[in-house]
Amino acid sequence: MDNLFIAATERSPEVTFDSAVGTLRIKGESYPEDASQVFGPIFNALQDYLVQAEGKALKVDFELIYFNSSSAKALMNMFQMLENAADVDIVVNWQFMADDETMKEFGEDFSEDLEHVTFNLVPVS
Amino acid sequence: MLAKQFRAFKSTLDERGIIFSFSGYLSEGILYSLGDALRQKMALEDTNVTTIKKVFSVFVEQSQNIIRYSAEKVQGRLDKAVELSSGMVTIGSENGRFFIVCGNTILEDDMARLKGRLEILRAMGPDELKAYYKEQLREPPDEGSRGATIGLIEIARRASAPIEFDFDRIDADRHFFCLKVSI
Predict the structure, then answer these.
(1) Domain A4-124, architecture per CATH
(2) Do B61 and A109 touch (CB under 8 A)?
(3) What is the distance in angstroms between the Cα of A65 and the nearest Cα belonging to chain B?
(4) What are the structural domain ranges in chain A?
(5) How many Å lie between the alpha carbon of A8 and the closest alpha carbon of chain B?
(6) B18-182 in CATH: which number?
(7) What is the ipTM metric for this complex?
(8) Do A109 and B56 touch (CB under 8 A)?
(9) What distance in Å separates the CA atoms of residue B70 and residue B26, rounded to the nearest whole number?
(10) Residue A11 to residues B35, B93, B102: CA-CA distances in angstroms?
(11) Each residue of A108-120: pLDDT tens digit?
(12) By CB distance 3.0 to 4.6 Å, which of A13, A116, B61, B135 could disulfide with A28?
């Protein structure tokens, strides 16, 4: 299965997906006008992984500093996709700066609907 | 005469506490550069991190609303697809708060829906806005809105006072729309 690496741009995050190990990391800022351009490739890679990942695990690390509302919407879709993959053992680590209330609150909002996914809020300083 | 005219123009902006004001065709590249300068300016003045993030977020959502919805646009292909939308973004400070105003032309047909949405948001308190945001995050987008509702809720959520908005009729088909947010 293909790995995915997308370098960060001024308005989009760095994305690293290692399908052999089962890790996805999204790091940086995300405020493109069209969020689907950034998140489309991630969705496709995840979908490919999840359909044949039965019994496997996936760790997703979010290290986001800022994202706009259309990226928030895309992130919500991603969490719904993860939640629906009931056969895969998924852990999400939501990293945020300890003094950043906004990112903490987003993490709490996203985690609310999740039952199958383990969601960790990880404050860093 | 030239210097006098433009000094008067600049003084008017300075007196209103304007940090910068952009008028003309706005692109994603301009948004990035202005946003970067805005964050640097606030950081140099030791503005608190939460405030910087709120101002920046409102600035991004306001600018992207202009890019998406301004009724004055030029589109085409140069070496890649280019979309330029005309409008105004102004950032300033007054009474110890930052303010962000956007202005752009909208079509008569879109006015009632936009006004209705903004009236709902203006009447909501922080908890209601938070709940409404969470609800909209889980909804499929409205037709043709490219994510407008969630962007406007984000703007209203970050505001420290109720949002202000106004429409000035240009002609039978168009209005000049303004939205002011204080943080």
Answers:
(1) 2-Layer Sandwich (3.30)
(2) no
(3) 10
(4) 4-124
(5) 14
(6) 3.30.565.10
(7) 0.90
(8) no
(9) 10
(10) 11, 26, 21
(11) 999 998 999 999 9
(12) A13
